[in-house]
């Protein structure tokens, strides 16, 4: 399995693209979240929007879904092999359509529904794509807001947006090769995200499996990134960088 970050910036990032990973495996691909910035990321990888085959949505903050309308329209105008398959946690489907429908429902050829654009799979606990299983993990992002990470044993855990859930990380660390964990990398504590300070309290054996994502643009310059890597065991994800798992 190959994991390529199309973007690893936070919700306000200008330079890195918003956080999203493209997984390629078994002759297919799956994007975790679909921000608008994925269009450029995919273009830089030599891919078109209609080559995206599967998408998983972690939650409905706009930096994770604001490319879905464009993806849907692109597939209608330039059809790929099939409609993109959209894996959506059960509690998010109706709200996701409400976010998207204002630009998709009415067309010159009549009224459209969500299923006209996507092959939608409602996910309760897990889903399987060409033999690879992905388990939903509810995260601690915004109180009462549904948000999820993905566990894909033995490859990775992808935290999505969350505060640190230390007991969960300790539970699964031996079962995966890599933990892609969000970290805002800002000095002030954000109540809905994870700070570097918190991650540095974890044992080095856990930190050594961690690749941080969804962070501010301050760490884009190479010298800043290199200095960070000299001083820490955790690594920073980089846009368009791939990880073989
Ligand atoms: Zn976010
Ligand atoms: Zn969020």
What does this structure look like?
By secondary structure, the chain is α/β, with parallel strands linked by helices. The protein is 25% helix and 27% strand. It has helices at residues 38-44, 62-65, 68-77, 93-104, 114-117, 166-172, 196-199, 204-207, 222-231, and strands at residues 2-7, 20-25, 28-32, 54-56, 85-89, 106-107, 110-111, 119-123, 126-129, 132-138, 148-152, 156-158, 178-182, 210-213, 235-236, 242-244. The strands form three sheets. The chain has a seven-stranded mixed beta sheet. It has a seven-stranded mixed beta sheet with strand order 9-10-11-12-13-14-15. Strands 6-7 form a two-stranded antiparallel sheet. Strand 2 and strand 3 form a beta hairpin. The model has no long low-confidence stretch (mean pLDDT 96). The chain binds zinc ion (2 copies). One zinc ion is lined by residues 59, 61, 141, 161.
Global morphology? globular
Helix and strand pattern: EEEHEHHEHEEHEEEEEHEHHEHEE
Q: Numbering strands along the chain, what is their spatial order in the largest sheet? A: 8-5-4-3-2-1-16
pLDDT averaged over residues: 96
Q: Tell me roughly what share of residues is in helical segments.
A: 25-40%
* Low-pLDDT stretches: none
Quantity of strands, as a count: 16
Largest sheet: 7 strands, mixed
